[in-house]
Write a structure and sequence with these properties.
GO terms for molecular function: glucan 1,4-alpha-glucosidase activity; starch binding. By secondary structure, this protein is an alpha+beta fold. Among the domains are: 196 residues, Glycosyltransferase, CATH 1.50.10; 102 residues, Immunoglobulins (Immunoglobulin-like, Sandwich). It is 36% helix and 11% strand. Strands 11, 12, 14, 15 and 16 form a 5-stranded antiparallel sheet that branches. α3 packs parallel to α14. The N and C termini lie far apart (75 Å). Bound molecules: 2-acetamido-2-deoxy-beta-D-glucopyranose (8 copies). The site of one 2-acetamido-2-deoxy-beta-D-glucopyranose (NAG) has 6 residues, from α2.
């Protein structure tokens, strides 16, 4: 029953809100004013993403078929590479668009499947595909799918999980559309390798999505759980075995440990000087969002109390961090970046995280509406207070337009819209989305035409218009044990090249772990590599030499180190080589060394060396 009186009351409430979110001086637009601009920008964004995908993307000549280039920017910053994470998130967007009805996108999906089947087998500095899947932890490759050998934060363990999620989503569509054998014979072998990797390595540290912090990342763990849980169901549907999926409840158990009582600490098992408040946590919850999930699900959905509490604390840090946010009151959206301590490219807000904040709120509203209720508890109370001051700790059931439930839904939706309005305020007139925008002026900066920025705008715009991917089955995820085991957890993976999808039939040459340790005093900016006769250490081509890490370098011991795999039983000659900071010539050791790799099944060996040869000197660049 509708009363004519109520819409007027609602109109007054929304007028108050639009005033709160749109002080006349700010230039920020209201909801209806952004409807048009959001749909225009979404179309530009879809095209912007497609322009960065080979082989025909207009901005990325030279990229191979199905390879998603992070950005056309080749210098400052150099992003002309294909990252497994960015690619998978972009393809997840494209697969969702395809399922929503844009059938013209299918060829991008087919190209991606082939490209990733091949990529899984490419040997790289993180290791080889066989025998143990280590190469799949490599974060990025050249745009033609060949290895990238530079020093980098590796491994990154979110890539295989995100790729599996994208491919599982497409496989489910194939099953529902009469092509189960394609899902089983062609795509499942790729997914099976990725899930093997997740099951084997989830309980080891790796670099986070920002490629800076080695530890355990909330975003990574949340996606690892979704991949294993969703993979379990696909394996049942296809009547195949998922090696690694049995780890799902243990991963979910671990996921609970990122909450510190006040907010989500996005990186744990680390020693850095950050609070842990990080956009990582918002991105994790939107990429594991499930429209059918219960809000108290341990998968930590957007509508979960801890996710909401974390959202408030995190967003409030950015109110104080960036001067373009000054004067914007609590309860109104701001420009959002990675984390308050960020200094990369000046430490600015990012388009993709600002739109992710909006997407997170649209997701939460959709979940409450689908459940027809909302539980406000002590944990989430502060989040709601900013938006609806009369809120109390209690259950709100859905009701008519005047009910508190609907008023709260409208308030959270208006809050989401205000983040979109902030993003739009700083998008240039031609709709081009860079990575960041200046914290003081709002001008776009860092990599231009960032594929992930475009993909993030598209997914936000779909949620804003009420389109959600179908459930991934969070309700069926196995409940985690009450206490997590303390021993390190792992299921040994099974790795088989996905030949039906186009992977080369690489064979296991049986490799053995070899650790190179060398004492070499270096100046800041100088890097060390190992090079030698084996393919895995560059076959004497310095462009393919294996970069070493200085994580253990101290004033007592100038240690550079790298762990790799070499063919069992082979005799290898090698030496160390210094890369200078200003493109001066490489400096080689003046002696050749040899080692003999143990026979198949042998124990890891550790080479303990000390640099023999010229020292380096910093250039004047
Ligand atoms: C569908 O995808 C094509 C690219 O293949 C794009 O040009 C078009 O705008 C998309 N349509 C919609 C409605 O998003
Ligand atoms: C491994 O899992 C255990 C149990 O959840 C957890 O205590 C530990 O921190 C995890 N370590 C890593 C590196 O994931
Ligand atoms: C949580 O917040 C309360 C109140 O500000 C504070 O006393 C407590 O130390 C905080 N705990 C953590 C782990 O930050
Ligand atoms: C962090 O530092 C503390 C104290 O030095 C040490 O006990 C702990 O093992 C370190 N943790 C990691 C993950 O390095
Ligand atoms: C779009 O505008 C931005 C900012 O003004 C500019 O840097 C960029 O080159 C423009 N892109 C195109 C394709 O015109
Ligand atoms: C790949 O090579 C292995 C080992 O040589 C062989 O057993 C297998 O049949 C090959 N697979 C394909 C698809 O050719
Ligand atoms: C070391 O081996 C490389 C590759 O075979 C060769 O080019 C070089 O001359 C050798 N150097 C010494 C000092 O033996
Ligand atoms: C490397 O340095 C450490 C610490 O000074 C020393 O104990 C070790 O013997 C050195 N290794 C070699 C091969 O010289």
């Amino acid at each position: 029953m509708q009363f004519h009186f109520y819409p007027i009351a609602v109109a007054i409430v929304s007028l108050l809100f639009s005033q709160a979110i749109a002080p006349p001086s700010s230039g920020i637009k209201s909801r209806t004013a952004i409807d048009d601009s959001v749909s225009k920008q979404a179309a530009i964004s879809l095209q912007g993403a497609l322009n960065n995908i080979g082989p025909d993307g207009s901005e990325v000549p030279g990229a191979g078929a199905g390879f998603v280039v992070a950005s056309p920017s080749k210098v400052d910053p150099p992003y002309f590479y294909t990252w497994t994470r960015d690619s998978a998130l972009t393809l997840k967007m494209i697969i969702d668009e395809f399922i929503f009805g844009n059938t013209s996108l299918q060829s991008y999906i087919e190209d991606y499947i082939h490209a990733q089947a091949v990529l899984q087998t490419v040997s790289n500095p993180s290791g080889t595909f066989l025998p143990a899947g280590l190469g799949m932890g490599e974060p990025k490759y050249q745009v033609d799918g060949t290895r990238f050998n530079g020093a980098w934060g590796r491994p990154q363990r979110d890539g295989p999980a995100l790729r599996a999620i994208a491919l599982i989503t497409y496989s489910n569509w194939l099953i529902e559309n009469g092509q189960p054998s394609k899902a089983k014979d062609i795509i499942w072998p790729i997914i099976a390798n990725d899930l093997s990797y997740v099951g084997q390595y989830w309980n080891q540290t790796g670099f986070d999505l920002w490629e800076e912090t080695q530890g355990s990342s909330f975003f990574t763990v949340q996606n690892q759980h979704r991949a294993l849980a969703q993979g379990t169901q696909l394996a049942e549907d296809l009547r195949v075995t998922c090696t690694g999926c049995v780890q799902a409840p243990e991963v979910l158990c671990f996921l609970q440990s990122f909450w510190n009582g006040n907010f989500t600490v996005s990186n744990i098992n680390v020693n850095n000087s950050r609070t842990g408040l990080d956009g990582n946590s918002i991105l994790g919850s939107i990429s594991t969002f499930d429209i059918d999930a219960y809000c108290d699900s341990p998968t930590l959905q957007p509508c979960h109390s801890t996710s909401l509490a974390n959202f408030k604390v995190l967003i409030d840090t950015f109110r104080e961090t960036y001067s373009i946010n000054s004067g914007i009151p609590v309860g109104s959206g701001v420009a959002v970046g990675r984390y308050a301590e960020d200094v990369y490219q000046g430490g600015n807000p990012w388009y993709l995280i600002t739109t992710a904040a909006a997407e997170f709120l649209y997701d939460a509203v959709a979940q409450w509406k689908a459940r027809h209720n909302l539980f406000v508890d002590e944990t989430s109370l502060a989040f709601f207070k900013d938006l609806y001051p009369a809120v109390q700790v209690r259950q709100y059931n859905s009701g008519n337009a005047h009910s508190p439930f609907v008023e709260i839904m409208n308030a959270v939706t208006a809050y989401a819209d205000s983040f979109v309005a902030v993003a739009e305020k700083y998008i240039p007139a031609n709709g081009s989305l860079a990575e960041q925008f200046n914290r003081d002026t709002g001008a776009p900066l860092s990599a231009i035409d960032l594929t992930w920025s475009y993909a993030a705008f598209v997914t936000m715009s779909q949620r804003r218009s009420g389109r959600f991917p179908r459930s991934w089955g969070s309700r069926n995820a196995i409940t985690p044990p009450a206490t997590c085991p303390t021993s390190s957890l792992s299921t040994k993976g099974i790795y088989v090249p996905a030949t039906a999808a186009g992977a080369p039939n690489v064979t296991s040459s049986c490799q053995v772990n070899v650790v190179f340790n060398v004492n070499a005093s270096t100046y800041f900016g100088e890097n060390l590599y190992v090079i030698g006769s084996a393919e895995d250490i560059g076959a004497w081509d310095v462009e393919n030499a294996l970069p070493m890490g200085a994580g253990g370098y101290t004033s007592d011991r100038p240690l550079w180190s790298v762990s790799t795999y070499l063919d069992a039983g082979e005799t290898v000659s090698y030496k160390y080589v210094r890369q200078e900071n200003c493109n001066q010539a490489w400096l080689y050791e003046t002696r050749n060394r040899t080692l003999t790799v143990p026979a198949c099944g042998g124990d890891a060996i550790m080479q303990e060396d000390a640099w023999v040869g010229p020292g380096g000197a910093a250039g004047t660049c």
